[in-house]
Amino acid sequence: MFESTLENLPFGLEPVDFAALLAALGAVSVFLLIWYGLIERDPLPARLKALDERRMALRSGLTDTRRRKSLVDKGDIMRRVVDRLKLMSTNTVKSTRAKLAPAGFRSRDAMVTYLFAKFCLPLVFGVGSVTWLYLVNPWDFQTTTSMGLSMLMVGLGYLAPDIYVKNAADKRLHIIRRNLPDGFDLLVICAEAGLSLDAALDRVSKEMAQACPELTEELGLTAVELGFLPDRMMALEALAERVPLPTVRALINTLQQTERYGTPLAQSLRVLSAEMRHERMMKAEEKAARLPAVLTVPMVIFILPPLFIVLIGPAILRTLDAIGGM
Q1: What values do phi and psi take at 105, rounded to 5?
Q2: Out of 189, 212, 242, 292, which could bridge 101 as a Cys pair, Cβ 3.0 to 4.6 Å?
Q3: How does pLDDT run across 59-69, given as a tens digit for each residue?
């Protein structure tokens, strides 16, 4: 069968010619593989292009997960009101930016919306409460009571934007705190692999894009700022301001020490990651130790009364029946 196959070769090839052709193809394939392995590929242009695209995306606000898409006319109206009332002074902008950054609001539109709500909500709440309590007055409140409730509503309208921003910041920081140990472990792996700080942060931000978008956003922004800010310490301090957590502050101190004194980055990050995991374990043990004290009140209120009824109820009923029979 094998001899018949060799006799039926295409294009009238002889077995010797077919073997020579296979040998030539194998030699060319080996040569191409060796050439492709020895060729020097420079990844710098691709990295620079990706860095520039990421920088432009961050500047235009495309990666802001908290950005609210509103109508153009509403944004123009709010911006005009804020500009007309001169609410965006230098000190106000600085303090407002520091307040909104932990919640993920970093665009100028978010600042305008916050200042507009800070100014308009007390007026809206005050006018609405006065109209309801003085003109409608469904509960027949006295004048002093209505005035006190109106002032309370004005204060609630003034504090409502701050309460909303604080709740959003707390939720976001809780998510980041929960995923920081995994990010530290990835940073250790990247540092041991020989990557620089900005490359390691960029790599970790890409790897954790699905697990924690909030941490990905912060690390990616820090990696971009490390690339174009004149002082690298400014980028690290900006990360500490955006994420005001003790663990992040410890990370910033470690990175600053590494940048200043040249200490091994991988070893420092490994020690910091171990400390963070130990701290998380201690918090879990603390919650577990606090559980019996927390369960005491629900157990006394909801468990012991039905238990007493089940255990003592039949005896009480028999005693009442016996007394009634006498």
Answers
A1: -95, 105
A2: 242
A3: 555 444 444 44
